[in-house]
Specification:
The structure is a single chain. By secondary structure, the protein is α+β, with helices and mostly antiparallel strands. It has a single domain, classed as YbaK/aminoacyl-tRNA synthetase-associated domain (YbaK protein). Helices cover 19% and strands 29% of the residues. The strands form three sheets. A five-stranded mixed sheet has the order 5-2-3-6-9. The protein has a three-stranded antiparallel sheet with strand order 1-8-7, with no helix packed on it. It has a two-stranded antiparallel ribbon with strand order 4-10. A hairpin with a 6-residue loop joins strand 2 and strand 3. The radius of gyration is 14 Å and the shape is globular.
């Protein structure tokens, strides 16, 4: 939230029960559609030295990690970062990761389909809050690249 405020990005803070921070539980409890709720997922190359990227997709889709993300990162194999790696790299816990406030050198890949939405809800940096904002404002996060087909329909 501090990164959003410092960048002058307008957003609405949404308080949530930390037990309902995971996207499916959040949507069910607070009535937000999965297609407007975004997951920020940290991925890692499997070979050393490990390279990381953050990927942002609609909760109604699956991250195309084996094809699109692997090609974007230029590595032979990619996997999801562990919760511990995510916390160590971002300072954020899974269920609250947001593309704002990530390490300045971490690439951020966002499914370009989110740009057609009226609003998006994404992690607020911790499990007790989310942020609601205009998806076009995601372009203001450092190192963002909008990628067609990053999220695959379920």
């Amino acid at each position: 939230m501090r990164a959003l405020e410092e960048a002058g990005i307008p957003f609405e803070r949404l308080e949530c029960d930390p037990a309902a921070a995971d996207t499916a539980a959040f949507c069910a409890r607070y009535g937000f559609p999965a297609e407007c709720s975004l997951n920020t997922i940290v991925v890692a190359s499997r070979k050393e030295p490990r390279r990381y990227a953050a990927c942002v997709v609609r909760a109604s889709t699956l991250l195309d990690v084996n094809r699109t993300v692997r090609k974007l990162m230029g590595v032979p194999r990619v996997s999801f970062a562990t919760a511990e790696e995510t916390q160590a790299l971002t300072g954020m816990t899974v269920g609250g990761v947001t593309p704002f406030g990530l390490p300045p050198d971490m690439p951020v890949y966002v499914d370009e389909a989110v740009l057609s939405l009226d609003y998006v809800v994404l992690g607020g940096g911790g499990r007790s809050s989310k942020v609601k904002l205009d998806p076009k404002l995601l372009s203001r996060a450092p190192n963002v690249r909008f990628v067609p087909g990053l999220g695959l329909e379920r």
